[in-house]
Design goal:
TIM Barrel, 9 helices, 8 strands, alpha/beta
Length: 206
């Protein structure tokens, strides 16, 4: 999955209230490498329905589908993997539930978390927030210098996240990270295809 740098798109229930699958498909056909389904305020029934729709799209475009936090939803729809945070079900339990053939990602907010992740059965880590972001209320800014250090000490691929957009993505990619995860930079506004293509072009240059 990380043989090359990846453009990792995360869905947002505020930005994708209408035409959910149509908007995600625009991103998929424009070059997104991984999709993470994230929904913090929806009930399980709605999440299952959306995740099933996403799974069909991801199969069509041969892109992995990762479910944020909800191991039960991931197992129910046979998603390709799960991404959990520091306050979610501990990684060792998640790995037991999903087995060894599914992708497992872990959010890290500081270098101590990165060092701890080196001892855990994860396939990649997310690191951030790199810049201020509006899509996660509790995000603390880690910055580019800490990202560089995270890339150096991590035994797993590092995906940078938080406030990344077309104007600052080059700075992020120069740190040597394995990919960038974005929300607003793709899904805010009406130009999802153009946003995705522009970001993908920059990722391909690294």
């Amino acid at each position: 999955m990380f043989e090359k740098k990846v453009l990792y798109a995360i869905t947002d229930e505020n930005l994708l209230k209408e035409d959910f699958t149509k908007k995600v498909e625009k991103a998929l056909k424009s070059g997104v490498d991984i999709i993470q389904y994230r929904a913090k305020k929806k009930d399980a029934k709605d999440m299952i329905e959306e995740a099933i729709a996403l799974k069909k799209l991801c199969i069509k475009y041969d892109v992995p589908l990762i479910i944020n936090d909800r191991v039960d939803i991931a197992l129910a729809v046979d998603a390709d993997g799960v991404h959990v945070g520091q306050e979610d079900i501990p990684v060792l339990y998640v790995r037991k539930l999903i087995g060894n053939n599914k992708i497992l990602g872990l959010s890290t907010k500081n270098l101590k978390h990165v060092e701890e992740a080196n001892k855990l059965p994860v396939d990649y880590i997310g690191f951030g927030s790199i810049f201020p972001t509006n899509t996660k209320e509790d995000a603390k800014v880690a910055g580019l210098e800490k990202l560089k250090k995270a890339v150096k000490i991590s035994l797993q691929p590092v995906v940078a996240i938080g406030g990344i957009n077309e104007n600052n993505i080059d700075e992020v990619l120069k740190t040597g990270c394995s990919g960038v995860a974005v929300v607003s930079a793709i899904f805010a506004g009406e130009n999802i295809e153009e946003n995705t293509k522009n970001l993908k072009e920059k990722v391909k240059n690294y």
